């Protein structure tokens, strides 16, 4: 599904076939989740294939490595150039790109000694808007910021995401709404969240979330469209039954929410500020005017 015999990847300094790549069973990342990664998308635009917010994603990758004490020397420009070359070698336009930085063999709990960069990509044609999501408040909490560098995109953090997401699916929902250690709304397993009340958008303040690049883009769009946004801490009770809500992330783009804990969002999506933001985002990724 992710690759076939012809797929090219970039690994440890060279392009090669995905089927010929391997990993070291003694690597620190495999054993301890000690890796950093990104999730990026490219789109077919009027100006050819464009990687959306490449600079922001690669700056975050470098920052994640730094926060985790993983040595990583690639520059943002090098990473961007390599990614365009990867897309070209595979003939991809609309694609999902997964840069991953893993560490060399080391079974001790000391910092990474050497790292390897992998750049993987696969075709991704949404082509349609995802169905509205029914979500539930998760019994799992986000990783505590005193235990993890939550603003870094680290492999091991996603064990928490898998537990929360699978639990919600097992209970018949599409996704989990995960709270922080104080019971405030944080995010979903892999996207940030906004809700709307009386024309104002609310989103959790930074602290226990991955500060998403899409979240930032949404705030920039709101600024352009004169839609007020508040970054604040709030409980799920404040969101339930609000006018509208959505998840946002590179992969999810902007997905409308149907209900939280079986309580529906009340307004017709097309008539909300959130709906306007969604339209603006879908346009932006294809024209890149911001
Ligand atoms: N939160 C989590 C936990 C995520 O995994 C993601 C996806 N990277 C996001 C939020 C959204 O981030 P972005 O908009 O940068 O993709």
UniProtKB/TrEMBL annotation:
GO terms for cellular component: cytosol. One of its GO terms (molecular function) is L-leucine-2-oxoglutarate transaminase activity. Keywords: Amino-acid biosynthesis, Aminotransferase, Branched-chain amino acid biosynthesis, Pyridoxal phosphate, Transferase. Its cofactor is pyridoxal 5'-phosphate. The keyword Transferase applies. Pathway: Amino-acid biosynthesis; L-valine biosynthesis; L-valine from pyruvate: step 4/4; Amino-acid biosynthesis; L-leucine biosynthesis; L-leucine from 3-methyl-2-oxobutanoate: step 4/4; Amino-acid biosynthesis; L-isoleucine biosynthesis; L-isoleucine from 2-oxobutanoate: step 4/4. Acts on leucine, isoleucine and valine. Belongs to the class-IV pyridoxal-phosphate-dependent aminotransferase family. This is Branched-chain-amino-acid aminotransferase.
